[in-house]
Amino acid sequence: MKKLLVAIFSLIAFSCSSPKIKPLFDMPMGVQAYTYRASFSNGVAATLDTVKALGITEMEGPNPANISPEEFKKMLDERGISMPSIGLDYNIIATNPQEAVKLAKIFGSKYVMVAWIPHGDTFTIDDAKKAVADFNSGGKVLQENGITLCYHNHGYEFGPYEDGTLFDYIAKNTDPKYVSFELDMLWAFHGGADPAALLLKYPTRWKLIHLKDIRKGIANDLTGGTDIKNDVALGTGQINVPEVLKAAKQVGVKHYFIEDESPDHAAQIPQTIKYLKSL
């Protein structure tokens, strides 16, 4: 009996002295507003209450179409949800970046992201060159107003070019003072890139990330598109999520937004959050 008690107390002492395992994901929980595009039209307040109930404290916007930026900001504030980043159309950055500045300041956003570069059936080097010029120009205006422009990859940029890809061309030719990036895990993977390796390849350029996964069995391509039903809860698809999160932490990604375009997002997001907390 004495030996048993000694063994028990030794085990307790070892447990107390052992360093606690730190969670892999320890950042504020965020979500992309596009996830709730169908829900907002049925009630903005109720949708934001759902977001708050999930423990989400950050949202990437901007506001849905049926409410003004000022009113949406007020509703976010009432629920303790901040908006560190907003997504805007490419043409706003290319032709009227001051509009982006104005909207970002309404929300107190430090980042403006662009998620799509206009192009034809295939994304070409000419499309990439135009984007580089527009991002450098628009990003300079944003930077002068204390805001960082981030380009959000969408998969089509990973077509081959010279000794790399068209994304490499964009990364190497945009000015780091004016242009940063937001990694979309799903679209990077779907375009044939390794999301974790991409983060590490350009370690000083990434500020934001979209947390999302793609259904098993879906083949990669350069279309920049896939059926929205192929968005699945994190940890159930093809992407090595822990590897991506480790790389994101290593390069200092600032904000993490769950984006689930699936019609099943209401069921999948709690599953995603549970998975993130389990890592």
TrEMBL record:
Q: Tell me what organism the protein belongs to.
A: Mucilaginibacter terrigena
User: What one GO molecular function would you report for this record?
Assistant: isomerase activity
Task: Tell me yes or no: is Amino-acid biosynthesis among this UniProt entry's keywords.
Answer: no
Question: Which region is the signal sequence?
Answer: none
Q: By its UniProt entry, which InterPro entries does this protein fall under?
A: IolE/XylAMocC-like, Xyl_isomerase-like_sf, Xyl_isomerase-like_TIM-brl
- Specify the protein name: Sugar phosphate isomerase/epimerase
Record key words, sorted: Isomerase
* Recorded superkingdom: Bacteria
Q: Which residues form the Xylose isomerase-like TIM barrel domain?
A: 49-278
The reply on keyword Lipid biosynthesis is no
The record's listing under Gene3D superfamilies reads:
Divalent-metal-dependent TIM barrel enzymes
| Entry-linked PROSITE patterns | PROKAR_LIPOPROTEIN
